[in-house]
Design goal:
Elements: H1 26-39, E1 42-47, E2 53-54, E3 68-73, E4 76-85, E5 98-105, E6 112-116, E7 129-134, E8 145-150
Antiparallel strand pairs: 1-2, 1-3, 4-5, 4-7, 5-6, 7-8
């Protein structure tokens, strides 16, 4: 049987559209984001049964589905992985190179993805210790942490 797509050239349409939207963050994310904005405190949720601490927080434990309780975690942590973006993309908030790191904060059992700053890409290393640098202007978004910087 012949493929119905035989002889059809694939078409690629390149565009730059902007689709603004907003959504309700929910109870859990709202507490997390307002604590960043108002107190410069990073909070996680600790499972009452398995004692794992999730950052970013989860309403219920994804491992055992039990309730979680709020706990503060450190603003310092360890880089588990990273990537360097060297091409300018519309979604990037700054010019390349932009460095994303997977950071496990002290006191947490999970990692969060965020920007790394004040470091040159060639000096990056898995296991690097970093500390959160909070934005001067905060608005209850994850960007209230401007980036994580290496600890000398």
């Amino acid at each position: 049987m012949a493929d119905i797509f035989d002889g059809i050239e694939p078409m690629v349409y390149k565009s730059k559209i902007r689709v603004p939207y907003s959504w309700w963050a929910g109870d859990t994310a709202s507490v997390f984001l307002t604590s960043l904005r108002d107190r410069k405190v990073i909070q996680g949720k600790k499972c009452a049964q398995c004692n794992k601490v999730y950052v970013p927080p989860r309403k219920a434990c994804p491992a055992c589905f039990k309730e979680t309780e709020w706990v503060a975690v450190s603003d310092t942590g360890t880089v588990l992985s990273y990537t360097v973006v060297r091409k300018k993309l519309a979604a990037l908030p700054k010019d390349p190179p932009v460095i994303y790191g997977l950071i496990k904060l002290d006191g947490a059992d999970t990692a969060m993805l965020h920007f790394l700053g004040d470091v040159v890409p060639e000096k990056l290393a898995v296991g690097m210790r970093v500390k959160a640098k909070f934005s001067e202007q905060r608005s209850a978004t994850i960007r209230d942490i401007e980036y994580f910087a290496p600890i000398p």
